[in-house]
Amino acid sequence: MGFILLFGVSQARAATYHVCDTGAICGAGWSTGNDANSCAAAQSKSTPKKTIASGLACLAAADTLIIGDGTYIGQANMIGNTNGNKYFPPSGLSATQRTTIKAEHVGQTIIDGQYISRALYMSDTGNTRNYVHFDGIHFRRGSGGVFSLGGNYNYVSHCGFEDGGPANDDGEWALAAIAGCTTEAATYNLIEDCWAWGKGRYGFYASGGGSSGLGTNHNIFRRIVVRLDDTPPWMVAGLRFYKGHDNAMQNCIVIDNKINVNAGEPYALAQGGGSSYGEESNHIYAGNIALNNPAQDGLGNEDGNILETASNNVFWDNKSGIKIYQDGSNDNVQAGFVFNVSNILAGGSSAQLGIGSTGNRYNTNMNLSDSVIANTAGYAFGTANVNRNLTNVISYGNSNNTTCIGCTGTPIVTNPFTTAIKYLPRHESGTAGPTILYQIGQTGTYYGQTGWNTTTTAELWPYAHEQLWANKMKAYTASGPGGNRGFAAVNSSTPLTDYIWGYLGNPKPNIYGGAADAQAPGAPAGLALGSPTENSLTLSWTAATDNVGVTGYKLDVSINSSFSSFVAGYDNKDLGNAISSAITGLSAGTAYYARLRAYDAAGNISSHSNAASAATGVSSSAKTYFVDFDSGNDANDGLSRTTSWRNVPGTRNLSSSGWVSGNTGWRALLPGDTIAIKSGTTHDSGKGGRILIDSSWYGNGTASNPITIKRDSTWGSGQIVINGLGMTVPNWQALLDIQGRDYIVIDGALDGGIKLQNSAYYGLQTSGNYNTIRYIEAYNSVWANILATSANYPTSYILGTKIDHVIAHKTNANDDWAANIYLNYADGAVVTHAIAYDSNLGSDGIHLGSCKNSWVLDCTVYGNGEQGVDISKDGDHKNRDDAYDVTVRNCVGHDNYKQNFDVNSGARRTYFINDAAWNVTETETGDGNFQVYEGGDRSFFINCTSVKSRDMGFGVGWWGAYYNLAAGSYNQYIINSVSSGDGGKSAVVESDYSGRSYAVKYFNSNFNSNGAGYAVTDKAANYTAANVNAGSGGWPGTACKSADPLFVANGASWATTDLHLQANSPNIDAGAFLFKTSASGSTTIIPLSKLTADLDA
Q1: Helix (H) and strand (E) counts for the chain?
Q2: Cis peptide upstream of residue 1066 (ω within 30 degrees of 0)
Q3: Of 68, 375, 903, 1049, which is most buried with the most CB atoms under 10 A?
Q4: Lowest mean pLDDT among 235-244, 420-429, 727-736
Q5: Domains of the chain, each with CATH number or no CATH
Q6: φ, ψ for residue 528 (rounded to 5)?
Q7: Given a cut of 60, is residue 845 above it in pLDDT?
Q8: What is the model's pTM?
């Protein structure tokens, strides 16, 4: 009786709590949350908590937390032990009394780690929980993985897992995992009806916890769909059991994977490996599909032990069907190991092998029955390392159908496509091939419970919410080739089902027999569009009717009543089965039109509803917000100097794991808004962390109404300092970081008006388009002081960046990425009136990597540890795109370590005009003031002056084959230019790489170096010359002379040098004329187009 009483009390006290970040996004009935609301109040959607951490703090065992629609960011919204912050749910009481954390609507609650931390981390020692249920949540953008759960009897259902880390992180992490640890195995957990995509070593992984971990046993992966879009160069798999036993994969799908070309031991489904030798046993693979993964084996059975079972599986268009792996002496496999395989379909045009093995597979017997191996490009059966017993196995259309050394039984060579195989998941007649029609395992059952491994009567197709998750996967672009491919590109209400059933080219049948539903639902009615804000509307409607039942609705939103175009993200958007939806991301003061169609489970879709229309709210006039780093308060409204904020919206806390505290007064910045910061104030680690300009607090500006962050020159006096000393700046991020926002202006109001200093990574970074950085001083960053980079390079460019009157000096890393000013994949960028000096050894003053249509104007570069200005591939990486159409004009470079001005790694159509170079400091010869190093075609040096280079003035060289440029002759031009007092030859041309040479054209130039004239060494180049005034040592048959150009002052240092020409200079009207665009200093203008045209004859 006591037990019954206690059970009843536990049931009675279970409560439901609510979290909502923004009421308008959470949906009908919600209000914006407030963590000051009591737990009792949070039992209502009208008074919810704001952060997940605050909601979790309300829970007792077996309680429920419902999270409203929207995106949740910052450490207070991460679950578990993330970056040292510990926000955990309590364990539940039993398998029927779980603690539950769920989305109100499947897939509409997004917990976003922002590549800073895992969205959920509950698998390390001391931090696991039991009997916890996570339902319907989209976890995305983790760091070191996005989801890792330990403990026992936990249940994860209807969740999505996107991106375990950023594109540039190749760590050994799984996208999502069930994980044991050193003190506890992870057992009896269930992952069901979940989807995983993006980047990760594994899609979903049962991890034993490393070499000292206690394993993962009796876990079930049931109806998980995985698509890997990118992986690191390690062993990879869609789904993997590791260091465990008695686990099951049921009705899982691994599909359309794109993996790293250097990945090792790649599988779609896998078990074992690494430190798990001989521990894998009694795994079950039932009703799974591995499809269109051409770089991965379908199933990798690695280090199996005792017994493994695979039945009713499809392994089609993978690298092979099944690969049994064993690495010999490290093997702990017991004698008599048996792998029972039945009713599989393996092969396809991508497959090189049907059933294979690798290594020395000792003591292994495969019993293969009632299966089909077809259409592989290689052998149906691999080497004889495994004993295979064949019963009713069809082998057809393979390069070799019958060779099966060491096999018992003979394969049947008959065409299965006329008898058995018409659709991948079902054989049509006979007993050979898979049948994957019904769900395996009762929904919600753990390993060993009644019905956990039975084939039920519940229809498997379509998979739960498959259109919702397919649309998210379709929109994915962060890593790899992009998400709009494979099944995700199918435009239907059941894209996964349609894709798989139609993969062999046959129309999808009525899968389950009986009369097919061919009747479409009626059109939705009663549409009403209202609740306007500046950027959102809410649509409601009356439920449509259908003879069987409506499954969901498709929404179109347009700015015109004809729906000839659509608002981004609202073209046939799947809303699921709802009767209202928030429409967000809209423009202020704009009329919008919305229409709906209803669809049913059979894929029938209604006609369009009548359109509803409404306008968003009119934006108030642009606002100016004030920030006083020293005396403001973030609880203020920020609208006056006396009610200023202390921090710029988007300021992180010191560890960069969340927003700085006390930001309740912050407002989102809209086009035309300005943040005015008090002059003479300082932001440092005592006040917060780095400043992040992203979609959390900032819209996009426009060309006419940018968002501006500026020094207020009329409020206070002196330089604003943002000091990163002691702040956490994550890798690849910046002290002041503009992420994906367009038309943002950072303005110091006068030279060095805002100073960024002492960043642990970049000083200032912009990855948005048409952003302007001006009057900034950036100092002492570890890597680049100023970085403008495309967020999606090398597939796209950042547009229209302007860097104006910036002073950038002192970097600390020895790397091409540590330039003072670094532009990466920039199109239409302008760097003007910048000064870049004192970068660390090995890094440039200004680096333009894989840029195009860009300009460096009126800049000074000196004392840098590599080149002054370098035009090359991004980071000199040979697989990046060439730079082209880049102009460097009216610039001065002096005392840089290597070249003052450099064209590198295939850059083409580069123009140096009116540039002066004086002295390189490297003692080793081989570097010129101006240099083309393995550059591409058509580099122009026009009206340029080289003085006191330690070696040549102009160097044109090809000293290797690293950049793999095509064979041929590459044209270079030296026009109206001077080399005087350089330590070696005035111009040196070298080409020691066979098949590639330079055709160097000299026009009206004066070569007066200490080494006399110009020279060509090694492999011959071509020459064209006109009016060359040069010293001795030219090409044969040419009488050469030189003349002192008579500079105003050629001093011992740059400070005492003036490279303008004296009135009686021989170069006036006869050669180069510094800082002028006219020919030889005369009044005759030679347009650039004339100089660069028809010079290749």
Answers
A1: 6, 88
A2: no
A3: 903
A4: 420-429
A5: 525-577+588-606 (2.60.40.10), 923-1097 (no CATH)
A6: -135, 130
A7: yes
A8: 0.53
